[in-house]
Amino acid sequence: xxxxxxxxxxxxxxxxxxxxxxxxxxxxxxxxxxxxxxxxxxxxxxxxxxxxxxxxxxxxxxxxxxxxxxxxxxxxxxxxxxxxxxxxxxxxxxxxxxxxxxxxxxxxxxxxxxxxxxxxxxxxxxxxxxxxxxxxxxxxxxxxxxxxxxxxxxxxxxxxxxxx
Length: 164
Prior knowledge:
This protein is of the alpha+beta class. It has a domain at 4-117: Aminopeptidase (3-Layer(aba) Sandwich), CATH 3.40.630.30. It has five helices and seven strands. The protein has helices at 13-32, 34-44, 47-55, 101-111, 128-135; strands spanning 4-7, 59-65, 71-79, 84-92, 118-123, 140-145, 156-162. It is globular.
């Protein structure tokens, strides 16, 4: 069954937190180490923070639900005052990757903001698979951010593209 993409609901924050932790560990343990990834996910993906994001009407908090009710993907975006759509998260569980779900989440997150003129995101420099995913959608690296800059507190590459 094709996963259903919909807005997240209060009460799903723990499931989303687990999804994000599993995906982060799968993607980043080799480069950052298990302890560092656990610390990052505990900070960035705390259920209380996710609950606030779910309830924030200025955020588009999406989840992808498989046919059995389990969450298998997540995206979070918002429109900045400068008209730039910011994509903070786009994650698909490892077992659900390679089936087009990331593309569907991406397209849904972008479509939620029809007035956006530009799109921006950040990705870890060692996450080559994600960089290729975004480059195939027209994004280009515009700067390397240190841990003190950008959306996150780990080094990242800022990527942007204009609305076609």
